[in-house]
Amino acid sequence: MTRGYARASGGRRVHEATPAGHWKILTILSALSLGGLLATMTIEQATDGDIFLAYLEQVLGPKLRPGDVVVMDTSAPTRCRGRATDPGCGS
Hints:
This protein is α+β, with helices and mostly antiparallel strands.
């Protein structure tokens, strides 16, 4: 990110290089437990409901054990309406 304000001595302008706009999206989905990172997945696109459900079923679900607690935020991908978001492992 480029800063909006800067200071220079003697009333001179501050010059700073900025990226040209060749942006790539990298999304990291991960689960944290007392023992460290549990299930991590990276994708090169924005997360939507289908990607989040695939993460739950294919990455996080197999790692969970009975008694584990899953806490999710309220961002849009985690609110998959009309779909089961339980990884199905009985946790």
